[in-house]
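request received
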Amino acid sequence: MQAPYIQLKEIRLTFDKDQKDTIRRFSLNIKEGEFISIVGKSGCGKTSLLQMVAGMQKPTSGLITIGGHEVKEPVDELSYVFQKPILLEWKTILENVLLPLQLKRKLTEKDTKKAKEMLDRVGLTDAIHKFPYECSGGMQSRVAIVRALLDKPQILLMDEPFSALDSFTRDQLHVQLNELIDTYKPTVLFVTHDLQEAFFLSDRIILLGGEPGRILKEYQVPFTRPRQKSISFDQSFYNFQQDMNERLQS
Amino acid sequence: MKKIYLYSTLLFISLLILWEMIVKVKKISPLILPKPTTIADHLFTLLLSGYFTPHIFTTLVEIISGFFVGALLGIGLGLLVAQSNTLRLVLKPYIIATQAMPKVALAPLLILWFGYGYTPKILIVALISFFPLFESTITGLLVVDKDRLALFQLLKASKWQTMWRLQMPTAIPYLLSGMRVAVVLSVVGAVVSEFIGANKGLGALIIVAQGMMDTPLLFSAFILLTAIGILLYASIYAIEHLFLRKYTTYRRKIS
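response:
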C-alpha cells in the first residue's frame, strides 16, 4: 500500500480557549497525485483545514505531515489559490504570474517563456501585458491558477477559487483546470461549496459537517481521467448529490 | 473636458473684470485694493527687472530644502515605525502631541537658536512637511490587505521583499497624497518663518510691502507665492504621471 503523502492525524482546532472546537478528531490520508475536494457548509472549518496544511495556521493538537515531515511553516513544494485571485494591480498579468519565481530567484528568459506558454494554454495570450483591472473575474482566476502552477508545485491547495464566478465561466475553468492538473499532476486539496465542481474535478470527496467539524462521509468519484464535462449529467452524480444533501441536512 | 477648462477660464476672467470694475466705479483707493491691471503691471515690471528674482530664489530654496528634509525624515521614520507595533505604540503619544503642536509657533525659538539664515526656515518647513508624509507612509504601509500578506507569507517572501514588492507599491498613492498636502504646507511654513525674521524671500517682501503700504507689491508677492504653490503641487502630479502611474491608475479604475 502506498504511504500517504499528506497526512492529517487527529487534528483539533480551537480559535479561543473558552470556545468550542471548530474541528475535532479530523484524520485524513492523501496519496501523491490525488485530487481531494472538501465540501461542506460554511463555517465547518474547510478553509482552516487548508490553512493548516499550508502551514499558515497551527492546529491546537494533532499532527500534519507532508512527505513524512511535520508542517510547521509554509513549505516550498506547495502552492495556494485563494478565494480571491489576489493579483497585484500594479503588475501586468505576466508579471503577476512570475511573482513567485521572482521572489525566489532572478528571473530568466526560460521563466518568461514558460509563463507565456501557460498563459497561452488558458487563453490569455492577448492579456499578458494587461493590468488586472483590465481583465474579467474569470481571466483573473485563470491568472491565479497559472501563477500557482508555474513552478510545478507538488501540492496545490485551492480555497473556493471559482466561487465568485458565473456558472458558464466556472464550467470553462473546470475544464482548463483539469487539463492543467492532468499535465502537472500535483496533489490537490480543493475546498468548495459546489458539489458538481467537486464531482467533476476530484478523485475523492470529503464531506465535512457537524459542530465541531468532522468527516461525515468520503466518496470515491467513479471516473478516470481525463474527464468530459458530461460526467456531471451521469446518474452517479445525482445519487452522490442526493446522498450528500441528506447527510448535510440530517 | 475641454469645455470645463474653458468655463473655468471664463469664470476667472469674469471675476477679474468684475474686480476691475468695482474698484473703478467705487473709486477704491489702490492702497486698500488695487485694480488687477495695476497689480499685473507691477508684477510684470518687477519680474522683468529682476527685482523678485533673489526673493523667489530664497523662498524656493527654503521650501524645497525643507520639503526634502521633511520627506526624508517622514518617510524614513514612517518605514521604521511601520515595522514594529511596539515602537508605534511607544511613539504614539509623542506623535499625537507633535502633530497637535502649531509648528510655526516654534519659528521665533528656532530663529533664536539658529539666527536669521536659511537654517531656521528650512527646519520649520521640514517640521511642517514631516507629519503628512510620516502619517501617509505608516497608513500606506499598514493598509495592505491581509490576503496579500498571506500570499507573500506562502511564497516565503522575506521581510524586505514584502516591504519592497508589496507594502511600498501599496503605499505609493498614500505617499503621493501626503506629498501634495506637505508641499502646499511647505509654502505656508516658509512664508510664516520669513514673516518672523528675514530680509529676503517673498514672505519678507510681504512684510516690507505692508510697512511701505505698497499694496500692489503685496499682491504681487502673494500671486508669486500662489504660483509657486501651484507649480509644486503640479510637480507632484507630474512625478506621479511620469514615473508612478501604474501604482495609482488602478485605484481610479476600480473605484
